[in-house]
């Protein structure tokens, strides 16, 4: 059965943002309608001020040895509000990729997948995958011991020559830090670059870096500094965390600290003191300043089941921060797994009990759908 074009365009007006990108790539009629400035302006106006209406946030299941059974769904979306239901995956997931590979890193709507054989051999093949479009590139294993991946989206060229950049970094506590970058245009890894290790007394807290202006940042395990690595010049550096301003840095565990980025693209740190979240921002010339405090003890009681006792001495454990959505994923011991928008202070429940979520490993993921559509428009996609 064929629908008239007028009805099809009316259906497009009602589609969610996760559906629009595949539709824009489906046919010339849809692409012409979706990429018009008027259509994009309407969708951005409708998404302004919302939690995840313009950005899709969720978690991909990550394979690990001896995981609990049955396994969770491959992808679970984080709903835009407390009452929203978990949605079906909007992505054209490729079963054969996720049968042999597991997600280990994500950024800018892309995933780094690593062969499950990693658990049997030292080096394993990689795959850079775009879940929205289904685009993928298979990479041979790097020469360095790839503990951390710095992933960047650099374009959407039709010939596939330069749509991402990937740098594998070895952050082990040795005398040297090694890095190696992959060139999609050449289809091979570049030379191994070595730099003196700046005397890390403890390894980094999280292997997933925060990337700002082509500089990767990792929070060091000594709770006193941030390790920086320029992905183009391969230069190492350190940013000190002033102890007087962040006295609680020395008294909280590593899971109560999270490196992030501000909406203005500045380096930020998120601290958890029981159920209070504080956000500090590093401003050039002004140092670290506190920007915001979010009292989860004021928000969570309204979301709890009636009759369940609430205790303010519970502790937050941070998992991940979304650069585009402004959402932080955190566990509250005994209560559950939550997504908190640090700007609007909206909270939604991802898991009923933290121990249910902790039984599995996840790779957080987000993509700004309006930004992707506008990128398609500005890149001159033929209509």
From TrEMBL:
<dbReference type="Pfam" id="PF12937">
    <property type="entry name" value="F-box-like"/>
</dbReference>
<feature type="domain" description="DUF7595">
    <location>
        <begin position="99"/>
        <end position="377"/>
    </location>
</feature>
<dbReference type="InterPro" id="IPR001810">
    <property type="entry name" value="F-box_dom"/>
</dbReference>
<dbReference type="InterPro" id="IPR036047">
    <property type="entry name" value="F-box-like_dom_sf"/>
</dbReference>
<protein>
    <recommendedName>
        <fullName>F-box domain-containing protein</fullName>
    </recommendedName>
</protein>
<dbReference type="Pfam" id="PF24523">
    <property type="entry name" value="DUF7595"/>
</dbReference>
<dbReference type="InterPro" id="IPR056016">
    <property type="entry name" value="DUF7595"/>
</dbReference>
<feature type="domain" description="F-box">
    <location>
        <begin position="2"/>
        <end position="40"/>
    </location>
</feature>
């Amino acid at each position: 059965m064929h629908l008239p074009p007028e009805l099809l365009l009316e259906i497009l007006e009602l589609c969610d943002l996760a559906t629009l990108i595949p539709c824009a790539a489906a046919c010339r009629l849809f692409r012409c309608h979706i990429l018009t400035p008027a259509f994009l302006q309407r969708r951005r106006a409708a998404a302004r001020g919302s939690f995840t209406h313009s950005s899709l946030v969720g978690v991909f299941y990550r394979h690990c040895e001896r995981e609990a059974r049955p396994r969770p769904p491959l992808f679970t979306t984080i709903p835009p509000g407390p009452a929203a239901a978990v949605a079906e995956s909007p992505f054209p997931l490729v079963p054969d990729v996720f049968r042999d590979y597991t997600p280990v890193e994500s950024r800018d709507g892309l995933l780094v997948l690593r062969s499950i054989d990693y658990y049997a051999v030292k080096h394993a093949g990689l795959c850079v995958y775009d879940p929205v479009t289904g685009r993928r590139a298979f990479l041979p294993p790097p020469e360095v011991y790839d503990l951390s991946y710095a992933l960047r989206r650099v374009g959407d060229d039709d010939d596939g020559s330069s749509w991402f950049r990937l740098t594998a970094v070895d952050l082990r506590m040795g005398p040297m830090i090694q890095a190696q970058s992959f060139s999609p245009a050449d289809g091979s890894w570049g030379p191994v670059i070595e730099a003196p290790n700046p005397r890390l007394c403890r390894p980094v807290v999280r292997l997933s870096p925060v990337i700002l202006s082509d500089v990767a940042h990792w929070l060091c395990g000594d709770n006193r500094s941030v390790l920086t690595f320029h992905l183009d010049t391969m230069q190492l550096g350190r940013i000190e965390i002033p102890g007087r301003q962040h006295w609680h840095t020395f008294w909280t565990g590593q899971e109560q600290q999270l490196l992030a980025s501000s909406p203005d693209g500045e380096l930020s740190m998120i601290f958890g003191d029981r159920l209070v979240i504080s956000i500090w921002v590093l401003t050039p010339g002004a140092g670290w300043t506190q920007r915001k405090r979010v009292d989860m003890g004021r928000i969570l009681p309204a979301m709890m089941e009636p009759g369940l006792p609430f205790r303010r001495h519970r502790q937050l454990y941070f998992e991940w921060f979304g650069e585009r959505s402004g959402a932080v994923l955190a566990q509250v011991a005994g209560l559950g797994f939550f997504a908190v928008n640090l700007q609007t202070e909206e909270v939604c429940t991802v898991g009923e009990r933290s121990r249910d979520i902790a039984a599995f490993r996840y790779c957080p993921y987000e993509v700004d759908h309006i930004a992707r559509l506008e990128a398609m428009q500005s890149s001159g996609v033929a209509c």
